[in-house]
Amino acid sequence: MDGGANAITSKQMALYTFVCQTGIGSIVLPTALAKEVGHDGWISVIATGVLSIAIAALLGMLLKKSSGKGILDINKEVYGKVIGTAFNILIFIYLLVTASAGAGIFVVFLRISFFRLTPQLIMSLIFMLPSFYMVWYGLKTTARFKIFTLFSYVVVLVYIILIYKDIRPTFLMPVGEAGIVPLLYSIKTSYFAYIGLELIAVFYAEITDNEKALRWHVFANFFSMLFFTIVTAVCTAVFGEKFLPVQSITLFNLFRIYNVDVLERIDLFIIAFWFFAISCSIRAYIMASWYSLNKICKKKKSTFIYMIFIALLIVISRIPGDINESYLLLDIVNYSGMGITVLFIISLFISAVKTKGGKRYEKG
Amino acid sequence: MLLIQEKLKNCPDLKQKNVFIEEKHEAWFFYIYQNIDNDLLQRDFISPIINMTYKQLSDIKTVKNIPNGSIKLVYTTDEAVKEIFSGSAVFVFELIQYAISCKIDKVEKRALEEPSTEKNIRGPHEGFLEVLEANIGILRRKIRSDALKFKTVTLGKITNQTVAIAYIEGIANKDLVEGLYDKISSIKLDGMPAIGFIEQSIITHPHSLFPQFLNTERPDRAVAALLEGRIVILMDGTPVVLIAPVTFISFFHTLDDYSNPWILGSFLRAVRILGGIFIAVFMPALYIAITSFHYYAIPLELLLNLAKSRVEVPLPPIFEILILEITVELIREAAIRLPTYIGTAVSVFAGLIIGQAAVEAGIVSNLVIVIVAATATASYVVPSTDMALSIRIIRFIFMLSASIFGIIGIVVCTTFTIGHIIALDSLGQPYFTPFSPFSLRGLKDSFVRLPLKKQKTRPPETKTGKKVRSE
Fold this sequence. Notes:
The complex is a heterodimer. Chain A is mainly alpha-helical. Chain A has 14 helices and 2 strands; from the N terminus they run H-H-H-H-H-H-H-H-H-H-E-E-H-H-H-H. In chain A, a hairpin with a 3-residue loop joins strand 1 and strand 2. Chain B has 3 domains: 2-103, no CATH class; 132-244, no CATH class; 258-429, no CATH class. Chain B has 17 helices and 12 strands.
């Protein structure tokens, strides 16, 4: 193959970030926001989107000064070998637990939607198998797959057009009724959906055209905001603020409301298409954690270590017993994600100050 | 001399003609009787040599003046033996330091015929032959340019077969050509009865179901590939040549797509892709998934008919389909092995009688007959037999997965298959381009074929130095 097994372009990284954020995030976001701000969830999504774009831009700018290094290398440079490695292990744990939490919730969705009797372990193994396979081949393969998920997004957007008769814009009125304080408070919940924007820092060293990475990373977050806004607004306008908070898997329920002529039900196929996006979202974190592990260990990829890694991932994903515990784990992960993003920014900032901005350092 | 005779003992096809130079110095001509054109041998090699004196034979310049284009001097016993078995006649005279070899081989060739596995409507109706020189000649006749080059290598420790790598200088990527040459040169095998031995020795993913080199018997296809900047591998002893680098979608292309106007060509191609991929792979799996798990996805009227059709069938859908699919595979295999006239009769007999009888016996439902028949027909539209076989195997995996996990099983298999195809490469170039990595340039000749005017550039996977055609 051309380039290394992990070499990707900035466009691929942008798609990676977009799918990572929206694949799982859009499924339950409308319900979570409806519980907090009623029909004003879409405002919260836009406000958080603007914030996430700002954070993405900051990350991108700081990374630009890092002479093409990823956060795992920068940590070692900034904090020294021991503390830097400790931070890197912390990042690895965060990424692994996030991947496990995603896998756990994916299996819960499957159990609720399709397989009530199938053992969880079997489901985890079988349904994550393509992800394990692709991750083994590296970031390039994982990133290249993401282009096929765009079809899932097109399907969802077309579906939204098809259900235009069920969309009642009056359900979104009056705008801003929730008030400023609850809306500001809900930014925390909305931000959880945008988690994934920090992955660029992990993979930055692998981006072949990283001079364009900042621009594309901002685009990725912008499109995530756009998609979240559409989904949240449509879900609110279809279900209404009273019915929306009681939906368990909101997006899937949205897929069930349309009756097609002749075919009658198409929800099965749309849900099936959306599974591509969900699995891609989880795969993004599996790849990131496996990549970090290899960086920390500085070893060539080994089948034995990979097997242990998979076992660990599945074991952690099985910790939550039901959907509530799964959401709880996801909450923990989301808070950690916010913390990790702050850590990334601090590390990158220190690195930028120490090297006086990459380029000048290189000249010196 | 004794050394040569020792090496050539127990070779009854070998002719040793004893002659005397100047009527006193003993010498020998060695050749394989059946492989030599005896008239030419007599006229162009034996006669000139026996009329020469010892002094003349000792002078290299005089020897090289023998009126034959393939005179060659060999200096070791091994070399001489190799020449004899390559179809040359060798003159051995112990008083001179070398043996004289002359290639005047006679090879039985069949006529140029259209390959039975690669028919086309509007293109030429000729195929490659088993003789390497003839195949090189065919390519030369079609590409009359000094840019067409062949790098040859002798392979097979015992068989000593010649393999030629054809490419167009200035268009084909030099690194790819060199890399392929190195890979082929490093093959260590006793012999290669078929070109598949080369393919399997050099592919990077030997455990993959998907073919990574395109094989063809059609010179027009090889020429089209060369003009696009691809490399063609020819081997002595087989009419099949290999083309690389190729992409997944190129296995669904035929030359008729280009012979027809672009709308017709695109339509034919779209039908092939729709049939070869979507119907052949997904249709039986979807039937199993829907009838086993998601019956609510079937429209009510169809569901009632389906229920009526299945009411007398005691088997679950997976067994229903498997019984018929395996039967179809058996018929297909039998039809290939039997002579054409019996094969056709067997196909018709088995297809009609077994299908009808199976429905009446209550083993399968009517709808399954329709699905299996549509699937079998769809899998025939794939022009590459290698890809068609891959699709047939994948279909079984999809069916089994659908029978256990329903539609999610199909999603998992699809993800796995696409992931696998993305990870593949052909001669180091991404196999799933132009879809992933995405290439707008490559997309012009993928699902559809845009007009030739719009296809001014060569495919991206060839990594050609000359991106624009006719430049």
